[in-house]
Automatic annotation (TrEMBL), chain A:
Biological process (GO), any one: transmembrane transport
ABC transmembrane type-1 domain: residues covered: 96-311
GO cellular component: plasma membrane
Matching PANTHER family: ABC TRANSPORTER PERMEASE PROTEIN, INNER MEMBRANE ABC TRANSPORTER PERMEASE PROTEIN YCJO
Gene3D superfamilies assigned to the protein according to its UniProt record, in alphabetical order: MetI-like (1.10.3720.10)
Signal peptide range: none
Entry-linked CDD domains: TM_PBP2 (cd06261)
Name listed for the protein in its UniProt record: Cellobiose transport system permease protein
Keywords linked to the UniProt accession: Cell membrane, Membrane, Transmembrane, Transmembrane helix, Transport
Transmembrane segments: 39-62, 100-121, 133-154, 174-192, 239-256, 290-314
SUPFAM superfamilies, per the entry: MetI-like
Subcellular location field: Cell membrane
UniProtKB/TrEMBL annotation, chain B:
A Pfam cross-reference name: BPD_transp_1
SUPFAM superfamilies associated with the record: MetI-like
Keyword annotations of the record: Cell membrane, Membrane, Transmembrane, Transmembrane helix, Transport
CDD domains (alphabetical): TM_PBP2 (cd06261)
Protein name: Cellobiose transport system permease protein
Keyword Cell membrane among UniProt keywords: yes
Record-annotated membrane-spanning stretches: 31-49, 87-114, 126-147, 159-181, 202-227, 259-280
InterPro entries xref list: MetI-like, MetI-like_sf
Membrane topology per record: Multi-pass membrane protein
Domain (ABC transmembrane type-1) ranges: 91-280
Chief location category: membrane
Subcellular location: Cell membrane
Source organism phylogeny: Bacteria, Bacillati, Actinomycetota, Actinomycetes, Streptosporangiales
Species per Swiss-Prot/TrEMBL record: Streptosporangium album
C-alpha cells in the first residue's frame, strides 16, 4: 500500500498551483484519516472504561479513607482508620475464610473436571455438538434459578439430595446450618454452573494442538491418561493459566450464591457461616457505611491480586515439572 | 469439524488410526459416552426439576420420594407469578436492556477490534495489552462509587444505570480482535484503499460484513450475560420497575416458603433463554471454539 501511493503521484504529475493545493488538502485529510481513525475507533472502550471502571476504582480508594455515609453530607477524613478497624473485625476474617474455603472447594475440582471433560470431547465422537451444547446449558441458566433450584435439592427434610443419601443410610443433613456443609452446597452450585463453560474453553485450546503429536505418542504406546499429562496439558498451558486466573477472580467475588442460598440473608446465614467478602461489602453498603465498605473492597482487591499472583506462579511452576 | 463431515464416508482414513488405539477404543469409548451422557443428564436435570415443581403445588414438595413428572398446575402458578410481581414489565425491561447492550457491544467491539487487528498506529500493542489487563479489574470493586455516580446522574431506578456501564467490554474487544486478525484478509482492505475508500468506508463496507458471524456470537453471549446479570440491577433498581432477575429475587426472597411460586417464576425467566440457546447453541459453541483459541 505504502509503495503504491507514491507511484500514483508520480504517474500523474501536478499541472498547476490550484490542482496541487487541492491535492495537498486531500493528502492531509487522507493522512488524518489513516493516522487518526485508529485512535477514534478504540476510544469508546477507553472512555467508557475510564468512566465506569477506572474512576470508581480510584474513587473507592478515596472513599475508604473517610468516615463516609449517605446519611450526612460531612465526610471526615480518617486516614487508615477504616483499615485498622477492618483488621480487628472478626466478621472480616470470617468472611475472608469463607471466601477462600468456598473458592478452593469450587475451583480446584471444577478445573480438574473441566480438563478431563475437554479431553474426552477432544476425540472423534458421535453427537459432539449435542454434548458441547449441553455443557453450556448450566451457564445459560440464571444464577437466581440455579440457587432456588439447588436450595430445593439441598433441603433438609424433603430435598432430593438427602433423599438419595438416605439410600446409603446417611441421615438428613441440614446443609445450610453447618460451616462445612453450607460451603459444600454453595461450591456445588458454582461448579455446576461453570465446569462446562471452562471445559469448552479448554477444548478450544486443545483443538489447536497438532494431531501428529498424539499419533506419534499412540504409536509409542502411550495411554490416553499419559497423553493428557505429557502432551495436552503442557501444550495448552497459556489457556490453563488464563482460566485459573479468571476463575480465581470469580471465586473471590462470589455473592449471589451465598446471598440467595440463605434466602436473601445479607449476613450469610444466622451465624455468618457462609458470608463471603462480597456479601460483607454488600451488608455495609446497605447500612450506608460507604467508607467501611470501600475499605473492604480494597482489601478484597489486594487479596485478588495476591491469590491470582500465587496461582499464576503455581501454574507456571507446574509446567516446569512436566516438561 | 466441517472438514470431517465433508469427507465422504468411504474415504474415511482408516489406516491413520493405529492398531493399538483401535484395540483399546472399545471399553474406553463406551466409558467416554457414558460419562458425557451423565454430564448431559445432570446439566439438564435441575432445569427439568424446576419445571416439575413449577407445575405442582407446595404440598407436593413434601412428598417422599419427590415427584418426578410434571403436574397440572403450571399455568395457575404462572398466573400467580404475574399477580405477585410486575413480571411483564420485568420481561420488557430485560429485553430492552439486554438488547441495547448486545447491539452496542457488537458494534463498538467490532470497531475497536478492527483497529487493533488491521490498522497500524503508535501505541497499538500497549493499548491492546491494557485492554486485556482491564479484564483483571473486578467489576464489583467499583459498585459503591458507581452507585454514587448514578445517584448524581439521577439514573438510579432507571435502565440507563444498567445500560451505560455495559456498552462495551474488554472481552468483546479482545474477541473481535482475535477473530478479525485471522478471518479478514488484509488484501481485501488494501484493495479497498486503492479504490479510494476512507477508513470508515472500509469499516462499513468490508469489515462489518466480514465480522458478522463472530459479532453474532458475541451478541448472543452478551445478551445472555446481560439477561442473567444479578447484583448491579439489584443494587440500582427498585422492585416496582425491575428486570427479570430482580423480579425473581423478589420471589425468591419475599416468599420464603412458597417454593412453587419461586420456581414457576424461575422457569418462566429462564425458558426464553434456553429456547434461544437450543436454537442457536451450535453457532454459539462454534464461535467460542473460534474466538478463544489463545488464552
Amino acid at each position: 500500500m505504502a509503495t503504491r501511493a507514491p507511484d500514483r503521484l508520480a504517474a500523474v504529475p501536478p499541472d498547476g498551483p490550484v490542482r496541487s493545493r487541492h491535492r495537498l488538502r486531500r493528502h492531509l485529510v487522507h493522512q488524518l484519516d489513516v493516522k487518526g481513525s485508529p485512535y477514534a475507533y478504540v476510544a469508546p472502550f477507553f472512555l467508557l472504561f475510564s468512566a465506569f471502571g477506572l474512576f470508581p476504582l480510584a474513587y473507592t480508594a478515596w472513599v475508604s479513607l473517610h468516615e463516609w455515609t449517605l446519611l450526612s453530607d460531612e465526610h471526615t477524613f480518617v486516614g487508615l482508620d477504616n483499615f485498622r478497624a477492618l483488621l480487628a473485625d472478626d466478621y472480616f476474617w470470617n468472611a475472608t475464610f469463607n471466601t477462600l474455603s468456598i473458592g478452593v472447594l469450587s475451583t480446584a475440582p471444577q478445573l480438574l473436571l473441566a480438563i478431563w471433560l475437554a479431553h474426552l470431547l477432544n476425540r472423534p465422537l458421535r453427537a459432539q455438538t449435542f454434548f458441547r451444547v449441553t455443557l453450556l446449558l448450566p451457564n445459560v441458566t440464571s444464577v437466581v434459578a440455579v440457587v432456588v433450584i439447588f436450595s430445593q435439592l439441598f433441603g433438609r427434610d424433603f430435598g432430593v439430595i438427602n433423599w438419595m443419601l438416605g439410600w446409603f443410610g446417611v441421615d438428613g443433613v441440614a446443609w445450610n446450618e453447618g460451616v462445612a456443609t453450607s460451603h459444600v452446597a454453595i461450591s456445588v452450585m458454582i461448579m455446576w454452573r461453570w465446569t462446562g463453560y471452562n471445559a469448552l474453553i479448554f477444548l478450544a485450546a486443545m483443538q489447536a494442538v497438532p494431531r501428529e503429536l498424539y499419533e506419534a505418542a499412540t504409536l509409542d504406546g502411550a495411554s490416553g491418561a499419559t497423553q493428557l499429562r505429557k502432551i495436552t496439558i503442557p501444550m495448552i498451558r497459556p489457556t490453563i493459566i488464563f482460566v485459573v486466573i479468571t476463575s480465581t477472580i470469580g471465586a473471590m467475588q462470589v455473592l449471589a450464591e451465598p446471598l440467595l442460598f440463605g434466602t436473601y440473608s445479607i449476613s450469610g446465614g444466622p451465624d455468618r457461616q457462609y458470608q463471603t467478602l462480597s456479601l460483607l461489602i454488600y451488608e455495609n453498603f446497605t447500612k450506608l457505611d460507604f467508607g467501611y465498605a470501600s475499605a473492604i473492597s480494597w482489601m478484597m482487591f489486594v487479596f485478588i491480586v495476591l491469590v491470582a499472583g500465587v496461582n499464576y506462579l503455581l501454574t507456571r511452576r507446574a509446567k516446569g515439572g512436566l516438561t | 469439524m466441517s472438514a470431517r463431515t465433508a469427507a465422504p464416508a468411504a474415504r474415511r482414513p482408516r489406516t491413520t488410526v493405529p492398531a493399538a488405539r483401535r484395540s483399546r477404543s472399545g471399553a474406553a469409548r463406551r466409558l467416554t459416552y457414558l460419562t458425557l451422557t451423565a454430564v448431559a443428564f445432570f446439566s439438564a436435570l435441575p432445569l427439568y426439576y424446576s419445571v416439575v415443581v413449577a407445575s405442582r403445588d407446595n404440598a407436593a414438595l413434601a412428598d417422599v420420594p419427590p415427584p418426578l413428572l410434571p403436574g397440572g398446575n403450571l399455568f395457575a402458578n404462572i398466573a400467580r407469578v404475574f399477580d405477585t410481581v410486575p413480571f411483564a414489565l420485568a420481561m420488557l425491561n430485560s429485553v430492552l436492556v439486554s438488547g441495547s447492550i448486545a447491539i452496542a457491544v457488537m458494534f463498538l467491539s467490532t470497531l475497536a477490534g478492527f483497529a487493533f487487528a488491521k490498522l497500524r498506529f503508535r501505541g497499538r500493542n500497549v493499548l491492546l495489552v491494557l485492554t486485556v489487563a482491564t479484564m483483571m479489574v473486578p467489576a464489583q470493586l467499583g459498585i459503591i462509587p458507581l452507585y454514587m455516580l448514578m445517584v448524581k446522574l439521577e439514573w438510579t431506578g432507571t435502565m440507563y444505570a444498567l445500560i451505560a456501564p455495559a456498552l462495551i467490554n474488554a472481552f468483546g474487544v479482545f474477541f473481535m480482535t482475535q477473530y478479525l486478525s485471522r478471518a479478514l484478509p488484509t488484501e481485501l482492505l488494501e484493495a479497498g484503499r486503492v479504490d479510494g475508500c476512507t477508513t470508515w468506508g472500509l469499516f462499513w463496507h468490508v469489515v462489518l460484513p466480514a465480522a458478522r458471524p463472530a459479532a453474532a456470537v458475541l451478541g448472543m453471549l452478551t445478551f445472555m450475560s446481560a439477561w442473567n446479570d444479578y447484583f448491579w440491577p439489584l443494587v440500582v433498581l427498585t422492585p416496582e420497575d425491575p428486570t427479570v432477575q430482580v423480579a425473581l429475587s423478589t420471589l425468591a426472597s419475599g416468599y420464603v416458603n412458597d417454593y412453587v411460586l419461586g420456581l414457576a417464576g424461575t422457569t418462566l425467566g429462564t425458558l426464553p433463554l434456553v429456547a434461544v440457546f437450543a436454537l442457536l447453541g451450535k453457532q454459539i459453541i462454534g464461535g467460542i471454539m473460534q474466538g478463544a483459541v489463545k488464552g
